Predict the structure.
Amino acid sequence: MKTFSKTFSLTVLSSCIAMILSSGTAAAEEEGAQMKLIAECKKDGIQENICAESARDPKLQIFIGGQYYNGSKTTKPDYTRALAWFRMAGNIPVAEYNIGLIYERGGYGVMADTQMAIVHYGNAAAGMHPGAMYKLGRIYSTGNRVEQDLPKAGEYFRESHDLGYPYGSYGLALWYMNTMPDDHWDRPDMCNKVKDLIMKAEDGKVPEAFTLEGILYEKGILCTGQSDDKAVELYNKASYEGDYQAQSRSSELLIRNGRIDEAFRMLTAAVNDERNPYAMCVLGELFSSKNSGSRYDPDKARDMYQKAADINAPCGLFHIGLEYFQEPDADYDKALEYFTKAQENGSSDAEYYLGLMYSRGIGVQENTSKAIRFFKNANLAGNLEAQNALGEMFIYGNGVKQNYKTAFNYIKGSADAGRPEAMINMGRIYAYGLGQPLDTEKAREWYLKAQASGMDALPYLGELEIREGKYESALEKLMESEKNPNSEAEFWLGYMYERGLGVTKDLKEALNYYEHSVAHGSTRALVALGRMYQEGVTGKPEPEMAFDLYQKAADRKEPDAIYHLGLAYETGNGVKADNQKALRYFSEAAKSGHPEAMYYVGRYMEEGVFTTSNIQEAVKYYKTAASRGVAEAEMALGRCYEEGTGVSRSLPKSYENYLAAAGHGNRDAMRITGDNLMKGNGTEKDPYSAYLWYQKAADLGDPYAATVTAKVYAKGYDNPRNPEKSIQPDANKARKYLDIGIKQNFPDAQAFKAQCYLYGWLMEKDPKKSYNLFMEAAAGDPAHPNTDALYYLGYMYEHGIGVTQNFISAVTWYEQAVQQHNHEAELALGQLYLNATPSTGITQDKSLGMRLIRDAANGGNEKAAQILEELE
């Protein structure tokens, strides 16, 4: 017990000593940091006596923090140092408020962090700081980087207003307007309540309050008579008080009313008298617009933007960055520099372009995480381009997990707000079935909306009409669009000339359009050019050139190019074959929604090539690709349902998928569909429909289907129940389709033509030619010999037709046919054994003969059944 007490006392003592020492160390460290800040303060040119006296004076600490926050003649804005000084001032409301401002705005060495801003504004608001209350109200009312919460916003605005803060009154007025039911807008009591708040804010010289009242007059709302003149007067007053963006509202209103000269005079005065940066930017936009007539002057536009940029106006910084970004010899380093400055000063447009650069690796190393952050921040600030860009990233799974629903919400939000590019994306969503059912009419509606909004949507409308086979109308739209070079229109014109759709097929003209489309920025046209070089339509095949073109398009994130790279690596076309790389490219393209790539990923998964075999996952890929009309995927699903591989066996579903693949032009699926209809696999038997599918497959060169079709036309097909679904014999068609199989040395075709020579069908009898063709057919596929050829060779040797009669040779051929379960051969061989005589060289074997005849009868041979009945 004594030992424990002694130990305990020593532990407590050592803890106390450690606390005293650490407390002293912390105090020393804090004092050291403070002295360092004071030294930097003096070094940065801030009044030396203020720096020296600031150590124990929070007011001076806040003053110095303000110097670093705003910048001065001797210091540039530096939010890191500003934070340090505000924190030194302790938890007093004004210091907490300023810390909140820094985190809300971000830049100058500090990342924007709305949550941190809310924490510090909250601390300031708890100390009754009305400005912090207003800021919290703004954050929650706009949903700026947080979830919108209008009730909470209203509470903060009201508290700020009750404390007599003019911005609180303005915020509350705006809040009423945002939450007021439609039937309250004409109620005098509500009108007066809002207008009283606006007047209080105007009395407190809140510039935005004058802008808000100007909007009431411009729109003629809230019991206010419409008056553009009064609106212009109020916008100018707001600009004079400091809301420089109101100047653009004023000038736009004047221009809309045809008062362009007045707008120019007003903006010029605002630039010269007030150094209004937004007036500079609006003038820049007017000078850069060709609609400005004689005032169009790009040099003056740049001069205005540069003046605005020189005083760190975000609009000026953005436009200068945009110029560096878009000029022919783009200077992406300069663009990045100006976009970054503009973003730090609050430009959501710049934030969008930063996202664009990082998402595509333009002038910077590709970084999708940064891109998404910039897009999200710009979107939260109301940038519709960023909202659309986020949707595109979610559609293709670029840096985020692919999510069609999220993509749809972003893109539709941007489209509903009037962004034409987003309307085009909405059209593409419905046109290609990206997370929504394929719907051509909805796609057309969105494309027409984009056209009405001033964007050239004719190429997209033309694409729909190409799919519908309306080539004349499509050509008209594409040619109209191409008058002002449009890469999409040029691509589809190339597509039409390459395939001869509505125009005379002309590969040189197709190549010309594709090259023009590439010159105007199309990545799809790069893929089309690659395909033309690969197929040799410009001369001999140039797979290496094709691969280079695919690679260029893939570098721009074109899914179809990435898919073609996968094909190249799988087939070794233009590059050394490498299945592992092929799978990698197929997977990347599949993530971007490329349907054919999805099929290949599924196939690799099913076969377990460079990935773990997973048939269930493979089926998911097949289903997705099949839903997008990929015939190979529909074929794979047909096989899976037929075999019960990865799914429950279902012949009806198998038939449906084979039929879908046949409808999408797959030759094998057409043949299989014919087989299914003939046999009633998964559907009712329908020989007539089966023959139609066989003929379609035959027209595409399928030798089996061609042989079946030849047989049908040779004999005809009679359908007594439905004469309209009969097929009349046609010797010319029979010979035509038979030739398709013969040219491919197809054994079934050779065997049928041999029968024709034997019996004089379609051509004159010629036993010798018949025998030779039966021999070719029998030898054509040793693993699966043609049973008809085997049988007929036995028949010809038995009867000495085209060859010397030889019963032993006949038996040899019949036996081979019997092994393949040919029932005619069973009957013939059975009769030979049953009726053998010494002269035939065959030993009679009645038992074997009867068994063979019985097998033939059991197999459905009617003649064998009749003979068996007579014998028994």
Summary: Residues 2-43 form the longest helix (42 residues). The mean pLDDT is 89.
